[in-house]
Amino acid sequence: MRFNKKIKFLVTFAVALHFTLTALPALYAGMKIIPVADISLLGGKYYLDSDAASFQGRLDAFFSPAIKLSENNDLIPVYSGNYSGTQDVQELAGGGVLTRKRQTHTFSLKYIYTREFDKYKTRISYSKASIQETKDEKWGDGLFDYNTLSFGFEQEQERPHGTFTESYDFYQVAYPNYSTLLSQSQSVFNDTTTFNELSTNAGENPMDNTSHRLGFVYAWFPEPLNMKAGYDFTYRLYGDQAVAARPVTGQSPFKKDTRADMMQNFSLKANRSLKPLYLSAGARFGWLNSNQGSYDSTRSKYMEDYYSYIDFSLSPAMTLALKNGVQFSFGLDWRRVYYLGRLKQDAAGNYGGSEITQNFWLTSISARYPVFNRFFARAAYNYQIATSNMRYEDSYRYNYRANTYLMGLEWEF
Question: Cα 348–354–360 angle (5° rounding)?
């Protein structure tokens, strides 16, 4: 049986190799490689509530040797990476966490097949992110380090009245250093019965998750505007994160069910070109519905829908692009979040009767000036304000003011 399987495999491989070798001359005859690269090295400071961190650097790199296999076939490998030595508040594990350093490396491959006015795209990517929260933390040991593997496909239909795009993506995210303390604490409990009661249904890797995303976009061009409307739906399953149960004496604090989130976003964006001025404005409405609750044992408070929220955002922007390569950009992002089950607390941690609301304002200003050949001098300034009716911040930051300035060089190819 095994011998027959080997024979079938060798025959199949030989046939595939024959067709590949036959097609290679024609394939390479029309092949073109178009390299694209962009690298920027900046230095600057980050201020959180007027407290300044030391001067640190930021590196962003993008490289893509786009390969045109033939008139209708394109292959696009991409590497993108960034390193940020400046502090920042990132939304991690459901709240704002202050991080000191971050670096991310992403490798992706996209294949595009074009048939008249239709395009079909498949893609796969792998990303590795490392995050440092403290000065003495080594790279690779960060609690919130994560790896992402994804693949998907997309089809695009260009028609006289507009362009339709449909897409599907699958994501698998793993946090190699994040595990529950309970899963590591069996030796701490002298009472085996108590440990078994607490650990029943409790998972070990609660942050690991898989996602399925469907996206739909329609773009149309009513002069003098370019318009784009989109909708996306994501189903995310945390396969090892049990749902918190309402506490009952003698029973596990976790249900048999695992956490599942459903996210929906509706977006609308408009662009207009008034050369040398480019204007844009975007609006988005989002809704996250999660079955995960939370129990605060120190205050004996149980909350359902702890991670569920709705949010609105607006993002106007403008760019002045002169013929000599000089660019000036200004952007404003506003976002308001309404949590549906997470109750506000005062500074002492006492719960109120209403849910948390949070506002984000981000102002971005940047400039670019050509200095030599493909080298540009760059400067950027970001100012962010986060305000909330939540006053208890022992775990996460809800209220802060942060600003960053960066200056350096960019090389574009």
Answer: 85
